[in-house]
Design goal:
Belongs to the queuine tRNA-ribosyltransferase family. By secondary structure, the chain is of the alpha/beta class. The protein has 2 domains: 2-272, Alpha-Beta Barrel (TIM Barrel); 282-372, no CATH class. Helix content is 42%, strand content 19%. It is built from 15 helices and 16 strands. The chain has helices at residues 43-48, 58-63, 67-72, 76-80, 92-98, 124-134, 152-177, 199-210, 228-238, 256-264, 274-280, 312-316, 319-327, 331-357, 361-372; strands at residues 2-8, 11-18, 21-25, 27-31, 54-57, 86-89, 102-104, 109-112, 119-122, 138-140, 188-193, 216-219, 248-250, 269-271, 283-286, 289-292. The strands form 4 sheets. An 8-stranded parallel beta barrel has the order 4-5-6-10-11-12-13-14, surrounded by 4 helices. The protein is globular, with a radius of gyration of 20 Å.
Length: 377
């Protein structure tokens, strides 16, 4: 399923074969939380800008429109008209970040919907059942994302429970994949390493879940309050204990610099809302750092967002026009900015893969970071 093509130091160049197509790694997954990329971006757009994997969220789709409705519609791929791989996040992170009032027990978590306040229970089996109804390519195990600064004893207990939940996820996934009416009988399961910033807890957990022979392994609970240095340190310590012959996924990270640092440390999969969220606010990524189109200096700027960029926005429109759209609160402005940012990320991943193929990733990383730190204006 996962083929390690080559390595440069710890950096991995691989390909991951799934029932919905082959994923070339390292890869950035474009985040469409509720089965759509925020900013009026369609699946046809995603194909045009080189998206390999779309990521949707179990909790949000369970709440609305309901995973049973999506199953009746033939699964998430048919529902959103996307025939490439989809990864679904287990809902664990949302349960812990959105729910003010929640009760964690061994069985799972009871909390209230952020939409209408009705009571929801979610545990490992429920998360797997919802993801099975969605029929995603890759399902994530249900875990607790403990705060990065949580007390050591709390984190230890939380991680032990997360391991028990993972075992239950594995059993339930196997059962669901064997059912006659399952949407995707080839659904894959990734486990999640937790442990906040306690490297020894993380390493022990990595060793434990590595023995479970899962389809892939994620490092979760980072980029939630710790410094970049702490995050890189945890990756340095933990990734070597995850199987090199399986994909490694760093959840919810991050900036272009975070991705380059993650690749160097052996990460294959990334996802983050930054490119879409920043795009909707006129903050755009370029090879010479970020620009903010709301700045008055772009009012008469006839250049594209970035010279030489192949995205739909840069191929046709000026900074001045897109700035006007944003100021006028026209949806097209957001859409063009999001398309540009996602194209920038997807293109950067292609460049990273090409650099790894050529054995010059270290040189590429240095050049890219230098370039992004040197504004043209």
């Amino acid at each position: 399923m996962y083929r390690l093509i080559k390595q440069e130091g710890r950096a991995k160049r691989g390909e991951f074969t799934t029932v919905h197509g082959v994923i070339q790694t390292p890869v950035f997954m474009n985040v469409g939380t509720v089965a759509a990329i925020k900013g009026a971006v369609s699946t046809a757009d995603l194909e045009q800008i080189g998206t390999q994997v779309e990521l949707s969220n179990t909790y949000h789709l369970h709440v609305r429109p309901g995973d049973r409705i999506i199953k009746q519609m033939g699964g998430l791929h048919k529902f959103m008209s996307w025939n490439k791989p989809i990864l679904t996040d287990s809902g664990g992170f949302q349960v812990f970040s959105l729910a003010g009032l929640r009760k964690i027990k061994e069985e799972g978590v009871t909390f209230r919907s952020h939409i209408d306040g009705h009571k929801i229970f979610m545990g490992p089996e429920e998360s797997m059942q919802i993801q099975s109804n969605l029929g995603s390519t890759i399902a994530m195990a249900f875990d607790e994302c403990a705060p990065s600064k949580a007390d050591r004893m709390y984190v230890q207990n939380s991680v032990e429970r997360t391991t028990r939940w993972l075992q239950r996820c594995q059993v339930e996934m196997k059962r669901l994949n064997s059912l006659e009416d399952t949407v995707n009988p080839h659904q894959l399961l990734f486990g999640i390493n937790q442990g906040a910033i306690y490297e020894d807890i993380r390493i022990e957990h990595a060793k434990r879940i590595a023995e479970m022979d899962l389809d892939g392994y994620a490092v979760g609970g980072l980029a939630v309050g710790e410094t970049h240095e702490e995050m890189y340190h945890i990756l340095d310590e933990v990734v070597p204990y995850l199987p090199v012959n399986k994909p490694t996924y760093l959840m919810g990270v991050g900036t272009p610099a975070n991705i380059l640092e993650g690749v160097e440390r052996g990460v294959d999969f990334f996802d983050c809302v930054y490119p879409t969220r920043n795009g909707r606010h006129g903050h755009l990524y370029t090879n010479h750092g970020k620009i903010n189109l709301f700045n008055a200096k772009y009012e008469l700027d006839s250049r594209p967002i970035e010279e030489g960029c192949g995205c739909p926005a840069c191929q046709r429109y000026s900074r001045a026009y897109i700035r006007h759209l944003l100021k006028a609160k026209e949806m097209l402005g957001m859409r063009l900015c999001v398309l540009h940012n996602l194209y920038f990320y997807n293109t950067m991943m292609t460049e990273i893969r090409d650099a790894l193929d050529a054995g010059r990733f270290a040189e590429y990383k240095r050049h890219k970071l230098d370039s992004m730190a040197t504004p043209l204006e």
